[in-house]
Amino acid sequence: MKKRARFVAIIFLLIFGIIHFRLATLQLLHTESFGKHQINLLENSVSQRTQTIQIDDGRGHFLDNEGNPLSYDVKNVVILFPFLKYIQWDKEKLANLLAISVDQIDRQLKEHNEPFALASIGPIELTAVKMAEINDWNIPGLIASEKLYPKKQIEAEHLIGLIREDPSQLKSRYPHLSLPASIPIGIEGLQASFDSFVIPEMESRLIYHVDAIGRPLFGLHVKYAGNANPYYPLNIRTTIQTPIQQVAEEILTKHDVKKVELL
């Protein structure tokens, strides 16, 4: 009888030991790289209580010879957080300022479960005056901000190159840096050649804290999270003259020239 009780006690001790080890792994040992997929438990726990929208992916940019961006456009937009559908606020004032209907605002709030830029055919662009006016209203979850949009047509795209997510290559290329696995790296062209100069430390985001059902936690205002270093990552100015490059590429397209890259 004593042997059986001792055996059962040992089994229970083993079970509790395994459970405690599992809890220690989750909460203490591997909070930022759990399991074979290297899941960051801290980031995931925070994301469950925040609503965020990316303003800039944080990666350095390539500019033409005049300093104009080659791969993106900067637009002044109105950003709405989804919890606005649950609270009372003056939608009509916003609709009148932007010359749209309240129904358009309601429809887009209903369609989105994540923060979004208010749109008509494309993003509704604001003047600096309208941006300041909207932000002066101090409506929680309603923000006017700059946002970067990738260009549909990139001049000298073959020279600029490509980026993509590759966690294993990222880790082997930058073993000394603690970077999120989702950070893209350059795989071709200037993106690959200057990757170490333009790789982001973190993206720029607007963040709002919400409760378990997505309603705002009042007293907590929208926060900006981004790279605090104004000198990094770098923007790289090339010798590309955008107007000339556009004309040259239009000529190739017009004459259906293929398998040729022109710079």
From TrEMBL:
Q: In which pathway does it act?
A: Cell wall biogenesis; peptidoglycan biosynthesis
PANTHER family, from UniProt?
A: PENICILLIN-BINDING PROTEIN 4B, PEPTIDOGLYCAN D,D-TRANSPEPTIDASE
**Descriptive protein name:** serine-type D-Ala-D-Ala carboxypeptidase
Enzymatic class = hydrolase
Q: What is its EC number?
A: 3.4.16.4
Spell out the reaction equation it catalyses. Preferential cleavage: (Ac)2-L-Lys-D-Ala-|-D-Ala. Also transpeptidation of peptidyl-alanyl moieties that are N-acyl substituents of D-alanine
InterPro entries associated with the record: Beta-lactam/transpept, PBP_dimer, PBP_dimer_sf
SUPFAM superfamilies on file? Penicillin binding protein dimerisation domain
Q: What are the recorded Gene Ontology BP terms?
A: cell wall organization
What GO MF terms are annotated?
Answer: penicillin binding; peptidoglycan L,D-transpeptidase activity; serine-type D-Ala-D-Ala carboxypeptidase activity
One term under GO cellular component: plasma membrane
Extract the Gene3D superfamilies matched here: Penicillin-binding protein 2a (Domain 2) (3.90.1310.10)
Q: Where is the Penicillin-binding protein dimerisation domain?
A: 58-216
**UniProt xrefs under Pfam families:** PBP_dimer
